[in-house]
Each structure stands twice: as C-alpha cells, then as structure tokens.
Design a protein that fits this description.
The protein is an all-alpha fold and about 70 residues long. Helices cover about 80% and strands about 0% of the residues.
C-alpha cells in the first residue's frame, strides 16, 4: 500500500467536517431537545447519542487510515 497525499488530505478533510458537524449541529440540537423533557431516563438515553456519533467518527478514522485499498 503506497502513501498517497490526495487520499490523506481527503481523509483529513472528511474527519474535520465530521467533527465540525458533530460540534456545531448534533450536540446543540440534542442538548436543546433534552432541556424540555421531564423524564430523567429518556433524558439520559438522549444524552448518550453524541457518544455513539463520536465512536462512529473514530471508527471511520481508523478505517480510512488503516483500511486496505483495493487498487
């Protein structure tokens, strides 16, 4: 597997966009949605969603940088 600058830059841009979307969109929307909920159990469940999104972004990072390309 040869190093490719184009793929590396594309991967870094993808990760940056994912982090910005997570920080600017997902977390504030979920935080504002849980503010009006009275049930603590439901509020706790909804507060776990950003953690799963972060895990998904990390798994995508690992796949992008360590996955084998079929070329």
């Amino acid at each position: 597997m040869a190093f490719s600058t184009d793929k590396f830059v594309g991967n870094v841009v993808s990760i940056t966009v994912a982090v910005i979307i997570l920080a600017m969109v997902a977390v504030p929307i979920i935080s504002s949605a849980t503010a009006d909920i009275g049930d603590e159990n439901l509020k706790n469940i909804l507060n776990v969603i950003p953690i799963f999104i972060v895990i998904g972004v990390l798994m995508a990072c690992i796949y992008m940088f360590m996955g084998k390309d079929k070329e």
